[in-house]
């Protein structure tokens, strides 16, 4: 089994491309955490998961959507209770430049963290430009199994997140970013996961439309950096996801 611990299936806008992605997830056996941007996006992924056992829908309000979703936070409670994993949630001071959005981003994020603590949920967290602050929030709410999505901050904060017990999804820029390669060198093998982050992320990196089987390339590149053979690291990554899910009583 391969692992795509952070994808966005609603980003496959074209029906044919979506069908192709879903086929790949089935045929290549890729356990996929389908993150959401908001309620609509969660419902879309939830529907897809009914016909595809490899898809686990995750519910969250993405930091980019927080300013549209900060009023009536308690609307989210039933979805948080229902979902197996919370995500995508987080903070972003890199891509979001409008400072007036920051208070909404924080209040939405903290709402989800409180719920994650109360309901004992796994979290899939976006940390762009807010790494240190996220670390403090993780500690404040005592999160049990945070998955840090596509970490790209400084290495000192990375070490603190590793010490805390976080897991990390290595993404599609691994062959292209020196920083990502440095990060992978520092990550303990028992904390590594892989992700594709939707079709547009690979496109952003190298212009190619990103299907879920891109995880195979990522596994290959991790195996080279960590000096493991391909199957060994592939199996380790699957075992890591299984360990996280089992902590929360989810069996795959
Ligand atoms: Zn994402």
From TrEMBL:
It comes from the Bacteria. One of its GO terms (molecular function) is hydrolase activity. Coiled coil: none annotated. The keyword Membrane does not apply. Transmembrane segments: none annotated. Keywords: Hydrolase. InterPro entries: DNase_TatD-rel_CS, Metal_Hydrolase, TatD-like. The keyword Transmembrane helix does not apply. This is TatD family hydrolase. It comes from Clostridium neuense.
């Amino acid at each position: 089994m391969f692992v795509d611990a952070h994808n966005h299936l609603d980003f496959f806008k074209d029906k044919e491309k979506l069908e192709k992605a879903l086929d790949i997830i089935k045929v290549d056996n890729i356990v996929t955490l389908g993150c959401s941007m908001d309620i609509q996006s969660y419902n879309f992924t939830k529907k897809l998961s009914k016909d595809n056992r490899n898809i686990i829908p995750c519910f969250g309000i993405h930091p980019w959507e927080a300013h549209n979703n900060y009023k009536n936070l308690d609307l989210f409670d039933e979805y948080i209770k229902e979902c197996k994993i919370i995500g995508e949630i987080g903070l972003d001071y890199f891509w979001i430049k409008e400072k007036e959005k920051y208070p909404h981003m924080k209040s939405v994020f903290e709402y989800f963290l409180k719920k994650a603590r109360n309901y004992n949920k796994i979290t899939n967290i976006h940390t762009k430009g807010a790494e240190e602050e996220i670390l403090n929030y993780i500690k404040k709410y005592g999160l049990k199994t945070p998955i840090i999505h596509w970490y790209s901050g400084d290495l000192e904060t990375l070490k603190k997140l590793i010490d805390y017990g976080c897991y990390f999804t290595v993404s599609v820029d691994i062959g292209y970013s020196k920083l990502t390669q440095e990060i992978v060198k520092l990550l303990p093998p028992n904390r590594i996961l892989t992700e594709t982050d939707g079709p547009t992320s690979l496109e952003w990196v190298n212009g190619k439309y990103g299907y879920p089987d891109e995880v195979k390339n990522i596994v290959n590149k991790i195996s080279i950096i960590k000096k493991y053979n391909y199957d060994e690291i592939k199996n380790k990554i699957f075992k890591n996801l299984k360990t996280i899910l089992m902590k929360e009583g989810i069996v795959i």
